[in-house]
Amino acid sequence: MTISQDILSVGVYDPDLTLFEGQYRVSGMAYNSYLILDERIAVMDTVDAHVGDAWQANLDRALNGREPDYLVVQHMEPDHSANIAAFLTRYPRATVVASAQAFTMMKQFFGVDYADRRLVVKEGDVLPLGRHTLRFIAAPMVHWPEVMVTYDEYDHVLFSADGFGKFGSCDTVADWADEARRYYIGIVGKYGAQVQSLLKKASTLDIRAICPLHGPVLTENLGYYLGLYDKWSSYAPEESGVVIAYASVYGNTRRAAEALAEELRARGETVSLYDLTCDDIHAAIAAAFRYDRLVLASVTYNGDIFPLMRSYLSGLVERNFRSRRVGFIENGSWAPLAAKVMRSLLESCKDLSFTDTVVRVRSALNAESAAQVQALAEEMRG
Ligand code: FEO
Fold first, then answer.
1. Over the range 184-220, which residues count as b (16 or more CB within 10 Å of their CB) and which as e?
2. pTM for this prediction
3. Whose Cα sits closest to atom 3 in ligand 1?
4. pLDDT digits (tens, 9 = 90+) for 163-185
5. Which of 68, 86, 201, 364 is the most buried (most CB within 10 A)?
């Protein structure tokens, strides 16, 4: 794929991957890498180990007999760095360009820090290639501490490392928001402050294309993508709506959650229901950040809450869930305490408001708990 007259994509799409980073469900994954052909040639990052051969074949085709002068390493996570050693063996005259911390990690991963063929760069440093000049921008914790992104001053391209990436293929931007949100919240969501800092630096640049390390190159309507990143990284809700995440064993807690959904929809609310026992937990986590209200429904289980609800709450807390309105449904046949436990697990979250009504189901919905469902629906109205 050609991004400009001099910039080519040489990345690889793996259609068979079903689990990214050992936990995120995906239908394939793209590992991007770019080639800048100028008087001096730069390769921007490598790819995951198991698509290394396909990447090398793409690179060979695009180089058409020339040799790269630089390998720019923006991020050392192995889905991008796995082929550094092989690259530097194949191209013995190439220099590797990265942050000081990235070289420390190279030593850790590969046992060598390339002291005799490296260029250590930091915020604001530039690398002239001919027509193109690359300017390096530190982006610590987006998504590891060594990360930098790179701005090409000639074509006005931002090579954004993990930023603006998504799960799945590069084929289309049609479903970009859903898969980019799930990717962002899942992988970088904890580091909102650091993303805000990067967005501030990016706002001073004239960016005409964004080249991430996953997902499609973004060339149009860039304000839309930057706006979503601003929302996600500031933890502001994207839309008005209620997420109901429930963990039910025999269906009674599910029926309470569904009754609440019905009541809310009857009041004109957008509702997204997630069954934590079978739905993708990371989609449910991303949804909690997308909308402005959340209801958690769990059975009481071993004097605690259902384990998958505990995982869900951990997933929210570790990603800095905040600034939302939250309600609870609990079920317990003899000593219901799930609401108390769920609320205590959200204690460290900033700026949450809780409804007065807690729905308490004793085994199954009855007239009393059905009335509580209605009261909770009233309180959860936007
Ligand atoms: Fe795609 Fe943080 O690596």
1. bbbbbbbbbebbebbbeebeeeebebbbbbbbbbbee
2. 0.96
3. 77
4. 999 999 988 777 899 999 999 99
5. 68
